[in-house]
Amino acid sequence: MAAQETVDHKYVYDFAEGNMDLKDLLGGKGANLAEMTNLGLPVPPGFTITTEACKAYLATGEEPDGLAGQIAAHLSSLESAMGKRLGDPQDPLLVSVRSGAKFSMPGMMETVLNVGLNDRSVVGLSAQAGGNDRFAWDSYRRLIQMFGKTVCEVPGEEFEHALDDAKRAKGTTNDLDLDAEDLRGLVDSYKKIFSKHTGREFPQEPREQLDLAIRAVFESWNADRAVLYRRQERIPADLGTAVNVVAMVFGNLGPDSGTGVAFTRDPGSGAQGIYGDYLANAQGEDVVAGIRNTVPLQELEQLDKKSYDQLLAFMARLEEHYKDLCDIEFTIERGKLWMLQTRVGKRTAAAAFVIAGQLVDEGLIDLDEALHRVNGAQLAQLMFPRFQLDHEFQPVAKGIGASPGAASGKVVFTSARAVELAGEGESVILVRRETNPDDLNGMIASKGILTSRGGKTSHAAVVARGMGKTCVSGADELEVNVPAKKFTVAGQTVTEGDIVSIDGTTGKVYLGEVPVMPSEVVQYFEGSVDPEHIDNALVRAVHRIMTHADATRRLAVRTNADTGADAARARRFGAEGIGLCRTEHMFLGDRRELVERLILARTDDERDGALAALLPLQRADFEEIFREMDGLPVTVRLIDPPLHEFLPPLEQLAVNVAVAQERGEDVAKEEALLAAVRRMHEENPMLGLRGVRLGLVIPGLFAMQVRAIAEAAVTVARGGAVAKPEIMVPLVGAVQELETVRAEAEKIIAEVVRDSGVEVLIGTMIEVPRAALTAGQIAEAAQFFSFGTNDLTQMAWGFSRDDVEGAFFWRYLELGIFGISPFESIDRDGVGRLVRIAAEEGRAARPGLKLGVCGEHGGDPDSVHFFHEVGLDYVSCSPFRVPVARLEAGRAVIETDGSDSR
Ligand code: ADP
Ligand code: MG
Ligand code: MG
After folding, report:
1. Other Cβ atoms closer than 10 A to 439
2. 258 near 331, Cβ under 8 Å?
3. Ligand 1 atom 18: the closest Cα is on which residue?
4. pTM score
5. Is the CB of residue 125 less than 8 Å from the CB of residue 94?
6. Which of 207, 277, 655, 834 sits a CA distance of 20 to 30 A from 557?
7. Rounded distance, CA 695 to CA 373, Å?
């Protein structure tokens, strides 16, 4: 090829020179165009300008040395291959200029088609197309429109309005009814729009058009929307985009031409078959823009059997080559099929599982690869109940699926009304333009949240995800009028009390109550469907992949459960023990009265009396759980929250006392309570008298709990089951705390257990940064560690979770300070480092020290991978997340430790 290229850096690659592994350099689109070219598929010739050229341009504001020459050289070989010259007045070569980064990114410049047309070459183009003036002027007006909009930032609506005006003048709504004359007129209007907004004439010089378009693609890498998107998706800011220059092929040459998209399998369900859309006599962007109604791809068989058969053969070829669902863009120019793009296609959660299973059956991939192709977020989606959508339900709006789930309820517009109606037992959906921290109570009271503004990181979205509430955000078709208590959508008005249904997975909004059906996948986990015999491709695929995940993973998966019922359910979901049994619920309900007695005790006798009354109640709770978990370990956390949490709130007590005094009633007890609440009030309860500190301050409290645990274990063991209690001391920061508790506990255990064969372990939570940093000392006194990553995150960042999520996390996410809330996914660099230090130093001091994690991170996919990498023994999460953790623990093995299939 041309001499310039040998001078220095290679910035331009012909399609024939690249391949699919060069996505960093050529971007996804360019790498795949190269791959198809080398497979021998009919791709129009072209070349790719590398991401490195883009990076160099962005660094200096100028094209790097040698780039212009290399483009000229590749352009001229493209011209010889096509036998035409760019913009030649007699027989013009036209090209498209297409952006294409490593990851596809909304917010970047897309594509300019028909570069090379001008006032003269439009005539030549028509002549070459057999005097097809209509085609030529249609192509020219498209160039001005796309070039104006994407290269020169002319507002796109202006062109659309001019097009609408032309159609209206013609008395039609179909662009095909515009003839050559109409389109020539439209070109004139477009040019005026162009010069009005840019202060210059539409550029007539073909190479200038090309260079400006290339520059615009480079610059679009730093467009605001692109920058924001990258921050949120954690895509590195320094990748740059490639630019593809592709010889044009024309789908708008007449009825024997057209353009379409195709999928090698149904991206919705994963089913095999022919899926796609076709539009005759059109250029590529029309399909997506929805300008005219497309026809199903199958109908192409009638229109052009030869191209159709060829397309199916190419699709099969691509699937076999990529070993995955591919999506494809193609164009037919007068009966000749051209392939314009392919990539491994996006798919729904259900399709991901089904396709992975099918590809294993077809021998294209192995089970490790199938496991790699699905993920826990998809599995979690499949576990939510879904709307049962018959034809009668059509969505009226579509926003962003911000927090999954399916929720129906009465519309309310204010937080106060949400609380009020929910209090009457109604299901409500809180509808707002956007939410703010004042809406928090209303959000808690609602079944779902619907906003007309804001994205995945808006206040509504962040808070809803934190609460596990269904949320659709940014449904901008909704015109929300809070003062008038109504919204309008699709020409209908919805007022307070009307029922709507929102799907937090798809972002769709329905009027009326859509019936909800349970998830088949949950039924499978519950054991109520037999995966081997059910005619449900999804359940069979899930079963197969879960079985493989279980066989592959090294991490055990336990659950957080406080009741026998939760424990039983989690066990069905595959939990291999309880990693966190909180004892505080055992102090609620009618037991509050005993806690009050404990707090108000003035003498040792009074206190011991209260504890003695609590003992049998706690023991019964533990017995139930140990029985359910027969044979599996159960980690019980000694009481953790500050005791005043069990007393009525200060204001309420004060009112009660005042009212009772008014009536002249005996208020001695209330007054004592009120005094206790005042005395125990803490400015920062999360940092106050809680956890191990309670055990050290209130004599007999931990001892009672330890006794209840040991006695329950012995009773269960005598009954023939196997109880494996592990006592966990919360909030330890210094080994001395643990040693003190342990000395007392061991005495009690020895006394209770005797010859029953029961063994009780004593360990600690690692949730105070100091504990992580002195783990070597603490391990001397602990038989196991369990990382309490919620508190560890709060204390490492100095965040109070309850306060910060609603107050400013949305802003931090918007700014990219973190890509995801550190309460959702472990902060590897900070909190993760504490975990790593504690794991290493703990094991160094006590080889074989058992390490686990409890807290919501135990069910978060990325965090599970981290815990696998750090070498923990188990994760523990809520029962519903257990399958997700099992799946991700399996994936962590193949992704971290490597596997042959990758
Ligand atoms: P996007 O990434 O938005 O799909 P593309 O670069 O793929 O942008 O192009 C937009 C449309 O233009 C697609 O339908 C594509 O097939 C079509 N297109 C791109 N290049 C050409 C070309 N050289 N000839 C004909 N159509 C093209
Ligand atoms: Mg495309
Ligand atoms: Mg804690």
Report:
1. 23
2. yes
3. 284
4. 0.85
5. yes
6. 834
7. 48
